[in-house]
Amino acid sequence: MENFPLGITSAECEFYGDRLILLEGVIEEFLSCLHMVRRYQISRGQRDPIVSFQTRIKSAGSMKAKLKRQNLPVTADSALRDVWDAAGVRLVCPFVQNIDQTVDLIRQIPGIRILREKDYIRNPKPNGYRSYHMILSLPLRFLETAPEQPVWLEVQLRTIAMDCWASIEHQLKYKQDIADQALIVQELKRCADEIASTDLSLQTIRDLIEASGEEETLCES
Q: For residue 178, what is the enclosing H or E element?
């Protein structure tokens, strides 16, 4: 039996070929840089803005289907050059404010190049989906020379509540032949709006607690 990294099968190895190590590399480089930035923040007495993360390399089947939908060549070259989500990292933060903080930290990573940003938190999708998306690249230190084309990485940032909703919505939207589809879509949108309201309320509560703590410190001094 062949052994592959977690989440990678022989299908991905066959499709991406020698470019697979580039996708794995850009994920590892990003996480390494982010880890040091987070440690630096903590050393300065600040809270870690990230509670968890997930990584993935788009499956060969999903990538081929996407390339076909976009009328692109079904090749590894096209997957890395024309489609920007072959490699992905999802960062989950406790509060909305932490997403803004993390985006700022990402922008400060040396050598980083940001191709595109989309703020689906302040401008949610019609179905209620909220997240912050970035497409970026950064130097791959294990290579002797930089690749001709940047190796793009999709980064998604969500709160815990946003991530919960997106995971459930992802499962439900692939169910076929469901009665009352319109009602389900409506209810999912309502849930998304309620979750967004809850996120804001939780942020307000944390701000009040922190403000109270600062006032107590001033009184003591």
A: none
CA-to-CA distance for 128 and 46, rounded, in angstroms? Answer: 31
Q: 123: helix, coil or strand?
A: coil
Q: Note whether 13 and 76 are within 8 A (CB).
A: no
- 31: tokens are 């996480």
Through-space distance between the first and last CA atoms of the chain, rounded to whole angstroms = 66
Task: Using CB atoms within 10 Å of the CB of residue 206, give its burial: 0 to 12 exposed, 13 to 18 middle, 19+ buried.
Answer: middle
The tokens describing 168, both together, are: 């459930």
Question: In sequence order, which ranges of the chain are alpha helices (DSSP H)?
Answer: 10-16, 20-43, 60-69, 76-81, 96-107, 160-173, 181-220
> pLDDT of 145-166, one tens digit each?
777 789 999 999 999 999 999 9
* 44-101 per-position pLDDT tens digit: 888 889 999 999 999 999 999 999 999 999 999 999 999 999 999 999 999 999 999 9
Q: Which residues contact 7 (CB under 8 A, 6 or more apart)?
A: 55, 56, 57
User: CA 132 to CA 119: how far, in whole Å?
Assistant: 5
Report whether CATH 3.30.460.10 matches the domain 10-161: yes
pTM over 0.90: no
